[in-house]
Amino acid sequence: xxxxxxxxxxxxxxxxxxxxxxxxxxxxxxxxxxxxxxxxxxxxxxxxxxxxxxxxxxxxxxxxxxxxxxxxxxxxxxxxxxxxxxxxxxxxxxxxxxxxxxxxxxxxxxxxxxxxxxxxxxxxxxxxxxxxxxxxxxxxxxxxxxxxxxxxxxxxxxxxxxxxxxxxxxxxxxxxxxxxxxxxxxxxxxxxxxxxxxxxxxxxxxxxxxxxxxxxxxxxxxxxxxxxxxxxxxxxxxxxxxxxxxxxxxxxxxxxxxxxxxxxxxxxxxxxxxxxxxxxxxxxxxxxxx
Length: 290
Description:
It is built from eleven helices and ten strands. With 290 residues, the protein is an alpha/beta fold. Helix 4 packs across helix 9. The model has no long low-confidence stretch (mean pLDDT 95).
């Protein structure tokens, strides 16, 4: 029994296709996708078509990530009062424009966690953030880690969301994160996923990292106009895939911009983050490398 676990594609169809081409040569029994099918990259339509095709031919499980929640909450709709915040709302709007009614209905049907059962092997709890919250980075927070593992009797939890491949134990619970297919923060940037092999009544992880065609990915971002759609967010994405920003993440960029906004205006309500704050945060973190 072998399960392929893929998470955080973020609209990167180039990455997804490379991973699935690799897996064609493997004896995969089940595919598990942990959410965040849209995001920083422009291949949303191709990602969704690929996933639907795979679902028609293979046994697949799909979860909903926080990016899907944003679309279900209509954050990608017009909202003209947000026009001044392109770096934070631009890609939400881009995703909304490139998703179909079928896609939205699909997202709405997805759970945020489920338990994978296979005869003769322990159950595996899969989730995007944590089993209790779609955007909780539980495995890198000691309190959350202890709370979540105490709430379940699962021997194995597999999560995504952080874009960091991880292998950890808490008591008797094994916690794994496959990393990100499309938006890995490791240096050098790569396409990451994992295989779970059922061997001798237990699960053994195999982490897979595939080399990325960085020039192709950046070319597609430019052709899609993402640098105009979400300026500083997309500039940061380029630095991410070229490995020039170390371990910084989009969340780190956003967090710094919101701190600056709070200092300047006394409050900051995401996604209404002023463009000058995004620009200042970008320059502080990695402007000299752009």
